[in-house]
């Protein structure tokens, strides 16, 4: 069966495009698994990734047509497939930038908050309609979305099902940058290319260490910070970065 996910690699950036515009890029189980498989074993030359949605919307969430008459065990299995796939995106070691436009709803918001840099345009809108559907989030939203906007705000959005516009979502932290309508993809690609030029180990440490340190006690977090600093600052790339700064030129990192 063909999975509606288009993947292209250029300039050390992998572009993954959700290609199901007729369903507002609703996430099927095979599509979620395909994303997880890519980030579990990316091509060795990929240093950053970009996730896009084809058509007028980023992603309208869960494909509800797959979820009729499932047993609790089947729903739990499906939820854990999403958890594994989105964990590969968040913790796979490759910085992931997302361009958000149109609907960023339910599972689409869970996907977006598993990525590291989110650029939204003014057409973006956000919602968690699960409460109005008689269901609960299952793709990691109770952890990832709640960490971004707070548990209290997430609870209110699920209870009411109300929609946030691009400005409201940006104020809550759902996007890191807000641009004019139609400009999100170009800006997100620009950032992905820029991030791909960073020293790879430094990128990996930023992705892996910062969220874990946030969950640690202060003294443990400070020790982990020192360890990450020691690992990054003793590399050839760190020495190249210092030379480039002193010579007033762009660094040429080689991943060593």
User: What fraction of residues sit in β-strands?
Assistant: 15-25%
CATH top-level class of the largest domain: Alpha Beta
Which architecture of the largest domain would the CATH scheme give at its second level? Alpha-Beta Complex
- The SSE string, one letter per element, is EEHEHEEHEEHHHEHEHHHH
Distance between the termini: 40 Å
Briefly note the structural class of the backbone. Answer: alpha/beta
Strand order of the largest sheet: 1-2-3-4-6-9
**Average pLDDT:** 94
Low-confidence stretches: none
* Helical segment count: 11
Counted beta strands? 9
Largest sheet: 6 strands, mixed
Q: How helical, in percent, are the residues?
A: 40-55%
CATH topology of the largest domain: 2-enoyl-CoA Hydratase, Chain A, domain 1
Q: In one word, what is the shape?
A: globular
CATH superfamily of the largest domain: 2-enoyl-CoA Hydratase, Chain A, domain 1
How many separate structural domains?
2
Radius of gyration: 19 Å
Could you explain how this protein is built, in words?
It is built from 11 helices and 9 strands. The protein is an alpha/beta fold. The protein has 2 domains: 192 residues, 2-enoyl-CoA Hydratase, Chain A, domain 1 (Alpha-Beta Complex), CATH 3.90.226.10; 47 residues, Lyase 2-enoyl-coa Hydratase, Chain  A, domain 2, CATH 1.10.12.10. The strands form 2 sheets. A 6-stranded mixed beta sheet has the order 1-2-3-4-6-9, sandwiched between helices. A 3-stranded mixed beta sheet has the order 5-7-8. Helix 2 links the parallel strand 3 and strand 4. The longest helix has 20 residues. The radius of gyration is 19 Å and the shape is globular. The model has no long low-confidence stretch (mean pLDDT 94).
């Amino acid at each position: 069966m063909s999975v509606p996910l288009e993947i292209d690699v250029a300039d050390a950036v992998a572009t993954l495009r959700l290609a199901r515009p007729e369903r507002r890029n609703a996430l099927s189980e095979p599509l979620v698994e395909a994303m997880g498989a890519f980030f579990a074993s990316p091509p060795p030359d990929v240093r950053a990734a970009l996730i896009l949605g084809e058509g007028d919307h980023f992603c309208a969430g869960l494909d509800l047509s797959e979820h009729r008459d499932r047993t609790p065990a089947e729903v739990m299995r499906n939820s854990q497939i999403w958890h594994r796939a989105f964990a590969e995106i968040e913790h796979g070691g490759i910085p992931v930038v997302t361009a958000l436009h149109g609907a960023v709803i339910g599972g689409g918001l869970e996907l977006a908050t598993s990525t590291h840099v989110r650029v939204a345009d003014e057409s973006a809108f956000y919602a968690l309609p699960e409460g109005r559907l008689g269901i609960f989030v299952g793709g990691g939203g109770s952890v990832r979305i709640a960490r971004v906007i707070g548990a209290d705000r997430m609870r209110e959005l699920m209870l009411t099902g109300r929609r946030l516009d691009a400005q409201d979502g940006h104020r809550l932290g759902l996007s890191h940058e807000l641009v004019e309508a139609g400009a999100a993809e170009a800006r997100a690609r620009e950032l992905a290319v820029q991030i791909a030029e960073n020293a790879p180990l430094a990128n990996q440490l930023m992705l892996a260490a910062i969220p874990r340190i946030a969950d640690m006690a202060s003294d443990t977090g400070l020790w982990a910070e020192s360890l990450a600093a020691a690992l990054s600052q003793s590399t050839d790339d760190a020495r190249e970065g210092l030379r480039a700064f002193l010579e007033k030129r762009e660094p040429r990192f080689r991943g060593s």
